[in-house]
Amino acid sequence: MVRLWLNLARSGGTLLSRCLGCMEGVMLLSEVHPLGVRVIDPAAQAAAWHKLLRPGELEQWAGGRGRYDGLIALLVERAEARGKTLLLRDWSHLDYLGVPITEPGFASRSMQLLGATHELRCFATVRHPADQWASQQRLDMLRGRVDVGVYLRGCRAFAELAAEVGFVRFEDFTREPDAELLRLCEGLGVAFDPTWRMRYRTYANVTGDEATKVETIGEIRPARRHGLEPSVAAVFAASEDYAETCRLLGYDETLAERGDV
After folding, report:
1. Domain architecture of the chain: domains with CATH
2. What is the DSSP string of the chain?
3. Neighbouring C-alpha atoms within 13 Å toward the C-beta of 18
4. What does the alpha-carbon distance between residue 84 and residue 29 come to, in Å, rounded to a whole number?
5. How many other C-beta atoms can be found within 10 angstroms of the C-beta atom of residue 214?
6. pTM
7. pLDDT of 193-210, one tens digit each?
8. Residues 219-245: tens digit of each pLDDT
């Protein structure tokens, strides 16, 4: 079985990766995707982080050599042989926004490819679309390069998928970490390790904007709302995609006042 954790950029994925990845019995691959292997290589992660590939084998798979679904099948088999569970943190950004690597297809390519030959166990994590947007605008690779309408269309498409497979909201996790992390583990079919708090701050086998900033990780605190620029807020307020995303994920459509984003 392939376990696929679906999440969008700036929705708490790096922090949650630390929490899930540090659990006994879990082997996490972070932000992997069939279209992203030349940017983030799952074979390299599997070899360096978990020793699931030997040096000679790595040359056969690195950089997209070989079929993606074949590589994942091999890694699942190797992990299970060691009594571990392989968990894929999907780079869903490539499907629902794409910038700056590809164009969005508004459907999960990982699910389409892997689901053709494997049994899938999928679950999602989400964040309020306004706060997610505000956080994305702090990244040089996204700032000023994303059309708001395309972003909101992607949010809606992802929310439709999340509603189908099940999801945990990042805001709920920050308020009740143990309860929501347990629910996430149950959704993914991963054994929950109640000792995760002892290790998550120093767990380093992750990717993301905050991945290298181990020294800045503190206690998990409730997420705060972020305001939007007035012109952007107007687009959100008028958007049917935004309204439907909030409905599907159980969020309030009210936009926070402009603040420090």
Report:
1. 2-130+166-218 (3.40.50.300)
2. -EEEEE--TTSSHHHHHHHHHTSTTEEEEEEE-TT-TTTS-HHHHHHHHH--S-HHHHHHHGGG-S-HHHHHHHHHHHHHHTT-EEEEEE-THHHHT-TTTS---SS-HHHHHHHTTS-EEEEEEE--HHHHHHHHTTSTTTTTTS-HHHHHHHHHHHHHHHHHH-EEEHHHHHHSHHHHHHHHHHHHT----TTGGGTTTT-----STTTT-GGG-----PPPP----HHHHHHHHH-HHHHHHHHHHT---PPPPS---
3. 22
4. 13
5. 13
6. 0.94
7. 999 999 999 999 999 865
8. 899 988 889 999 999 999 999 999 999
55, two tokens? 């040096």
Polymer length in residues for the chain: 261
Q: How far is CA 138 from the centre of its chain?
A: 18
